[in-house]
Amino acid sequence: MAHIPRKRFGQNFLQDQGVIAGIINAVDPQADDVVVEIGPGLAALTAPLLARVPQLNVVEIDRDIVSHLSSIYPPERLVIHNADALNFDFGALAREIAPGKRIKLVGNLPYNISTPLLFHLASFSDIIYDMHFMLQKEVVERMVAEPSTTDYGRLSIMLQYRYLMDHIIDVPPESFDPPPKVDSAVVRMVPYDVLPYPAKNEDHLRKLVLASFSQRRKTLRNNLKGIANDQVLADLGIDPSCRPENVSVAQYVALSNALAN
């Protein structure tokens, strides 16, 4: 298919067979797994996934690609949802195709919507077994970052609250057509069956973390002025003069729970 990549969809098509094999091996799809691919593009991952599973669901926004894939694969093998993944109800899909089972999500995500898409998918974590995504390497580094590092921030905290994550493969620009201007990486995300640090009010936690990082170079005391005083922070073992990146996920949840009371 002579498809011209569309910038508005953030299209960069994976073509490196070694990288493709590495991703498929990491996903390790079994015949009875329910797999959903986001952004199948020109079927770089779709074809090897279909070699492992009897049916694959894909979510694709580009109608030309939908038409192309429909001409290659029969509908009983490839079920195509022509939709924007940012607005797609993965929960409804799981209930329809796999009642009582959790799904495996795979995708080379458009880098221009990766962060909001990750937050959108977080609302479906109860029906997800695991996720393997290609993302901008810088984003993956932020996702898996440890406290007290420059990459650690709001994305790190809110995703690590819900998932166990591993940075598993680095992917250079020349692995794509056209080559992106950035390095890429693949991350594995596995939702916790039981949250290690459950928040009493997750919306409160989100707002607290957002406020904490409102001015990254300022102290936690300054960023949380009017929200949490020094005594509340000190009682939880948090130094009020530290910066927001020095506070662990467990400490943010403990602070949120204390304030929510």
UniProtKB/TrEMBL annotation:
<keyword id="KW-0694">RNA-binding</keyword>
<dbReference type="InterPro" id="IPR020598">
    <property type="entry name" value="rRNA_Ade_methylase_Trfase_N"/>
</dbReference>
<feature type="binding site">
    <location>
        <position position="12"/>
    </location>
    <ligand>
        <name>S-adenosyl-L-methionine</name>
    </ligand>
</feature>
<feature type="binding site">
    <location>
        <position position="84"/>
    </location>
    <ligand>
        <name>S-adenosyl-L-methionine</name>
    </ligand>
</feature>
<keyword id="KW-0808">Transferase</keyword>
<feature type="domain" description="Ribosomal RNA adenine methylase transferase N-terminal">
    <location>
        <begin position="19"/>
        <end position="193"/>
    </location>
</feature>
<dbReference type="Pfam" id="PF00398">
    <property type="entry name" value="RrnaAD"/>
</dbReference>
<feature type="binding site">
    <location>
        <position position="39"/>
    </location>
    <ligand>
        <name>S-adenosyl-L-methionine</name>
    </ligand>
</feature>
<dbReference type="InterPro" id="IPR001737">
    <property type="entry name" value="KsgA/Erm"/>
</dbReference>
<dbReference type="InterPro" id="IPR020596">
    <property type="entry name" value="rRNA_Ade_Mease_Trfase_CS"/>
</dbReference>
<comment type="function">
    <text>Specifically dimethylates two adjacent adenosines (A1518 and A1519) in the loop of a conserved hairpin near the 3'-end of 16S rRNA in the 30S particle. May play a critical role in biogenesis of 30S subunits.</text>
</comment>
<dbReference type="GO" id="GO:0052908">
    <property type="term" value="F:16S rRNA (adenine(1518)-N(6)/adenine(1519)-N(6))-dimethyltransferase activity"/>
</dbReference>
<dbReference type="InterPro" id="IPR029063">
    <property type="entry name" value="SAM-dependent_MTases_sf"/>
</dbReference>
<keyword id="KW-0698">rRNA processing</keyword>
<feature type="binding site">
    <location>
        <position position="14"/>
    </location>
    <ligand>
        <name>S-adenosyl-L-methionine</name>
    </ligand>
</feature>
<dbReference type="GO" id="GO:0003723">
    <property type="term" value="F:RNA binding"/>
</dbReference>
<protein>
    <recommendedName>
        <fullName>Ribosomal RNA small subunit methyltransferase A</fullName>
        <ecNumber>2.1.1.182</ecNumber>
    </recommendedName>
</protein>
<dbReference type="InterPro" id="IPR023165">
    <property type="entry name" value="rRNA_Ade_diMease-like_C"/>
</dbReference>
<keyword id="KW-0949">S-adenosyl-L-methionine</keyword>
<comment type="similarity">
    <text>Belongs to the class I-like SAM-binding methyltransferase superfamily. rRNA adenine N(6)-methyltransferase family. RsmA subfamily.</text>
</comment>
<dbReference type="GO" id="GO:0005829">
    <property type="term" value="C:cytosol"/>
</dbReference>
<feature type="binding site">
    <location>
        <position position="60"/>
    </location>
    <ligand>
        <name>S-adenosyl-L-methionine</name>
    </ligand>
</feature>
<keyword id="KW-0489">Methyltransferase</keyword>
<feature type="binding site">
    <location>
        <position position="108"/>
    </location>
    <ligand>
        <name>S-adenosyl-L-methionine</name>
    </ligand>
</feature>
<dbReference type="InterPro" id="IPR011530">
    <property type="entry name" value="rRNA_adenine_dimethylase"/>
</dbReference>
<keyword id="KW-0963">Cytoplasm</keyword>
